[in-house]
Specification:
It is built from 18 helices and no strands. The chain is mainly alpha-helical. Helix 1 packs parallel to helix 6 and helix 8 runs antiparallel to helix 9.
Length: 402
């Protein structure tokens, strides 16, 4: 990134254009979803708050202790502990905004999602540009900017990109993840550390980001590998890197501590998650069975597509290693994928849960950026159309998609 004074053109390229591109894609997806919802006898607002969205809104409205008994886990059970399976970052942000005049809880949830999506768009495009400039030294400025926008399109039009427009945690989580990874690559350690802290309050997958931030900050702070510069060929991080190491895990550990106090067990959150949603580490046995069964025996689109998303994500890891994507991003992508693939639980949610591994799309974005505009635009238009249809199908046709 240039160190010269930013110009109006830079501001447009860095902020306005990514936000416009992101919302253009999401409007297409939401428009298709609205049409599907109407044809299926429901409506768009109801669809945008399905499944976990109901939990988010209930926690925002009532707090953890007073969530209505109509909110149940995957087994149809509601206990005094069930709500604590959901991390507080998103619903508490929604609840705070809903206290302002003129906001309903649902309206606040959508506003938080919209604002988070805008910030995510800017950071994702920035990551794409940074990687294009470092992975392809011969790329000119136009190709670098194109690569950033292509990565953004692939992110916004991911198979379950529709969740970026819902009353769900994904838009907010991906925003803080993307900015934290920007902080890691640019060695802006306070940004990396405090956004990692926030990620740990939003989703349990935040522990992966926390690990990456702490490791990269430690390597930079200690000057490993040894030499004139620290990790990734930049100057040692100084006190800011140590601050990042200290603050990054506080959100995640703090919430686990809250659940410990509530349940009386240091593993309380994990016990709630396992009892309510069947999620536990099983070395990938459940995922292996699901993929095999779906690809061999299933005649339904949803499980087959979900199985293909899982397989494609694993293939993307190998592609990123071969393409020499910056190692903190590869490590983050591997760990996110591992937490999803190596655990049991609701398999149909895997396409959504893998969305934060969007960094694995960087080599694809770089390849598309090198194509002629007609080829690149045709491919991306097909991706957007398929994503819009698939998201609408999963939310309105398939009964257990999230």
């Amino acid at each position: 990134m240039a160190n010269s004074r930013p110009t109006p053109r830079d501001a447009a390229d860095d902020w306005a254009i990514p936000v416009i591109v992101f919302f253009a894609i999401r409007l297409i997806g939401v428009g298709v979803l609205a049409r599907f919802a109407d044809l299926r006898g429901t409506n768009l607002p109801t669809t945008l708050q399905l499944w976990d969205g109901k939990w988010m809104l209930a926690i925002a409205r009532y707090g953890y202790a007073a969530v209505p008994a109509s909110n149940t886990d995957a087994n149809g059970i509601h206990t005094a502990d069930t709500a604590y399976a959901f991390f507080p970052g998103y619903p508490y942000t929604v609840g705070a905004l809903a206290k302002l005049p003129g906001f309903s809880v649902y309206g606040a949830a959508i506003v938080v999602t919209i604002i988070a999506g805008a910030f995510a768009a800017v950071a994702v495009a920035r990551l794409g540009r940074w990687c294009a400039s470092t992975m392809d030294p011969d790329a000119d400025e136009a190709r670098v900017r194109t690569a950033g926008l292509v990565l953004l399109v692939l992110f916004a039009a991911a198979p379950m990109g529709v969740v970026l427009s819902m009353a769900y945690t994904e838009a907010l989580f991906c925003a803080v993840v993307a900015w934290s990874l920007v902080g890691v690559l640019e060695k802006r350690w306070l940004l990396a550390g405090f956004t990692a802290l926030a990620a740990g309050l939003i989703r349990p997958t935040g522990v992966v980001l926390i690990a990456v931030v702490m490791l990269t900050a430690f390597l930079c702070a200690t000057g490993i590998p040894r030499g004139k510069t620290g990790a990734a060929g930049v100057a040692r991080g100084g006190w800011r890197a140590w601050v990042a190491i200290l603050v990054a895990p506080l959100g995640y550990l703090g919430y686990l501590g809250v659940v410990w106090r509530h349940t009386g067990s240091p593993t309380g959150w994990f016990e709630i998650q396992t009892a309510g949603w069947g999620t536990e580490f099983d070395w990938g046995r459940a995922t292996f069975r699901f993929v095999n069964h779906s690809l061999v025996h299933s005649g339904e689109i949803a499980p087959v597509a979900t199985a293909l998303v899982i397989v494609a994500t694993i293939v993307l890891i190998a592609i990123n290693v071969a393409a020499r994507t910056p190692w903190p991003l590869v490590l983050y992508g591997i760990l996110v994928t591992a937490t999803i693939v190596l655990s049991s639980g609701l398999m149909m949610s895997r396409a959504r849960l893998l969305l934060p591994a969007f960094v694995l799309l960087i080599p694809i974005a770089n390849v598309l950026a090198r194509q002629t505009p007609p080829v690149r635009n045709t491919v991306l238009a097909c991706v957007i159309a398929l994503s819009s249809w698939f998201g609408a199908h999963m939310l309105t046709v398939y009964p257990h998609a999230m």
